[in-house]
Amino acid sequence: xxxxxxxxxxxxxxxxxxxxxxxxxxxxxxxxxxxxxxxxxxxxxxxxxxxxxxxxxxxxxxxxxxxxxxxxxxxxxxxxxxxxxxxxxxxxxxxxxxxxxxxxxxxxxxxxxxxxxxxxxxxxxxxxxxxxxxxxxxxxxxxxxxxxxxxxxxxxxxxxxxxxxxxxxxxxxxxxxxxxxxxxxxxxxxxxxxxxxxxxxxxxxxxxxxxxxxxxxxxxxxxxxxxxxxxxxxxxxxxxxxxxxxxxxxxxxxxxxxxxxxxxxxxxxxxxxxxxxxxxxxxxxxxxxx
Length: 290
Ligand SMILES: [Fe+2]
Ligand SMILES: [Fe+2]
What we know:
Layout: H1 9-21, H2 38-46, H3 50-70, H4 74-100, H5 117-145, H6 150-180, H7 186-212, H8 219-225, H9 235-250, H10 262-273
Helix pairs in contact: 1-4, 1-6, 3-4, 3-5, 5-6, 5-7, 5-9, 7-8, 9-10
C-alpha cells in the first residue's frame, strides 16, 4: 500500500471516507435489552458512572455536532456531523438503558454550544483518546469475567468500536489541520494542542485520584481505576490488555492513517517501570478475556 502524505486532499478523503464507510446504521429504539438476573441488575446499578456517562455523551454530541454545522469543507463536515450523530446515539442508548433497568439519572441543564468548536473538538477528542484506551481494556475484562450477560455486553461492542473510529478520526484530523497550518504558525498550533491535551490529562488525573479515594462519581476515573473490581487483575495485566485491545480495534482500518500514539507510548513507558508480579496462576501472564 502506498504511503499517504499527511495534510493532502488524499489524506482528508481517506480519513473521512474511512469514517463514513465504517458507520453502522441502527436506531437505539431497535435494541433488544435482555432481562437481567437480580445479581447482574444490582451490579449494573452499582456502577458509579450513569449520571456522568449520560451527561458526558450528551455534551460531547453537542460539541461535535456544532463543529459539523460550521465546518466549511463538505467532506470533513459530513464525517464530523456523522460523528456528532453517533455521540447523540450513545447518549440515547444510555438513556434507554437506564430507563429499561430502572437506574435513576439526575437531570442536568442543557449546555451551550461551544464558542470555539474546532478547539473544543480538539480537546474533547484527545480526552476520548485517554478514555477509550482504558475503556477498551475494561470492556475486555468485563466480557471475560462474565459478570454481565453476553447479550448486554454485545449491545455495547459496536459502541466501543465507534469510539475507536472517533479517536482514529481525531488524530488524523488534528494532523491534517497541523499540516495545513502555515509553517510560521505551526509552533502556536503545537503549543495550543499541547495545552488542550494537558488540560485533559490533568482533568483525568484528578478524576482518577477522586475515584481511587472512593469519592464522587466519574466515568473517566472509572475507566482508569476500576479494573480490580472485575476480579484478580493486576495493574500490569490491565495495561497490557488495554494496549493489545487498542491495537486490535484500530488494526481494522486503513494502515495509511496514523494511530493515536500518546497514551499507548505513556503506558508502554509505565510498563517498563512497573514491578512485575506473578499472576494468580503463577504464569506471570496477563489475564486475557475469553
Ligand atoms: Fe461516545
Ligand atoms: Fe466518541
